[in-house]
Structures are given as C-alpha cells and as structure tokens.
Amino acid sequence: MRIKELPIELRPREKALTLGVDKLSDHELLMLVLRHGNSQMSVSQIAHNVLIKSSNLKKLGAMTLEELMSIDGIKLAKALEVKAILELSKRVGRAEVHNLNVMENSSSVIEWLQTEIGHENQECFLVIYLSVANKVINYEIIFKGTLDRSLVHPREIFNRAIKYSANSIIAVHNHPGGTLVPSEMDIVVTNALVDAGKLLGISVIDHLIITREGFYSILHQITRSST
C-alpha cells in the first residue's frame, strides 16, 4: 500500500507531527527517511526490505553503500541519505559526550560507544582521555584490526595522554562477532596498559568490550580474579 492510500492518521509524516517522531515504529521511521517509492515498489515495501536486509536495523550501521544499494528499491541517492543520517547520529553522540563526566553519565558513554564502534565490521581500539574531574577531553581510534599487544603499544597511547594532559584513560575495543567474552590477548593488553599507566601516574579506569547490544568490563574481571 502506498502512503497516499493510507488513512491520514497512519501516514508517517502526519503521525510524527501529531505524536512525535519517537512514537514511530522502525518501519515508519524508514518510510519517513526514504520518503517515496518508485514505479515498481511502494516506500513501505522498500522500508520493509531494509529491515529484512539489516536484521531489523541491527546491521544497518555497518552496511556499506554497496550493501545498501543491493536492497530492492535503494539506489545511490537513497543509500547516501541513509549513510548521512547514520553519520549525523554518530556526530550528535560525539558532541554530547565531549566534556561529559563519565562516572556520572556512564549509560550515555556506553550508548555513544555502541554508536561509534559497536557496529563496525572489524575490531577498533579506541581510547578516551579524561581530566582530573573524569570529563572527556578527547578520544581517538588508535587502530583497526585484530587486537595484538604489538599493535596496541602503551607508548603510543600514553604519549597522547600526555599531549592532552589527561589524568586517566578508558580503553575500548569492539567485538564484531557480538561476544562479550574477553580473549587472552584482551587481558594481556589490559595488564600492559595498567602497568604502564602506574609508571606514568596516568590511571587506566577500565578496558571495555563493546558490541551492538552490550558491553563488558575487562578490568573489573581482572580485579575480581585477583582478589
């Protein structure tokens, strides 16, 4: 069914104006973003195709332009619009987290990290640099690829910490496969960072594993295991 064939109160735009955008379903939000269909397919069907291809949005953040354009009804213009909206979402999260106290707003930080690297198809190692008041000074993705101690060298990480005059750091990396179980290398890297931080007087508050749907504290596991 095409949008103009729907009752007015069920049309995504009118429903958003009346009830608010947050009241729309995933399908309705996609219809609003995609705006219109084509001669062969309604926008409702295209939105449905996107939901199926993205596993109900779970994989949408990691989809490339080519993957989006492989969906029936999605051509370059619509694929670019979707990618632009996803990028805007990331940038809103970055703006909100800057200068945020991570201890008082941990849920907001986790949501931002899930948006930032939780949907990536390859491992990303990100470091958050914090002030004495535990506020975010800056963050950097140090590298992308399989986590290895030789790649995540404490010197590179703590040189940046000194550059930003950071009092502490939080290390973060994602598991594209979705598991929240730390590997032996995850623990090795965590211990190396903690030891280096002690020597420099820059504490490692945590090392987090991030996925699309959750997070795990490696440092807290190590702490529990040693007590």
Task: Using brief descriptors, characterize the structure shown.
Cytidine Deaminase, domain 2, single chain, elongated, alpha+beta, 5 strands
* Shape annotation: elongated
Q: Give start-end ranges of low-pLDDT stretches.
A: none
The CATH architecture name of the largest domain reads: 3-Layer(aba) Sandwich
Our count of helices gives 9
Return the average pLDDT rounded to an integer: 89
Q: End-to-end span in angstroms? A: 62 Å
Helix coverage percent = 40-55%
Name the assembly state.
Answer: single chain
Determine the CATH superfamily of the largest domain.
Answer: Cytidine Deaminase, domain 2
Structure summary, number of beta strands: 5
| Strands ordered across the widest β-sheet | 2-1-3-4-5
The largest sheet, given as strand count, sense and whether it forms a barrel, is: 5 strands, mixed
* Strand coverage percent: 5-15%
What is the structural class? alpha+beta
Q: Return the domain count.
A: 2
CATH class of the largest domain: Alpha Beta
Return the string of H and E elements.
HHHHHHEEHEHEEH
What is the fold-level CATH name, i.e. the topology of the largest domain?
Answer: Cytidine Deaminase, domain 2
Indicate the radius of gyration in whole angstroms.
21 Å
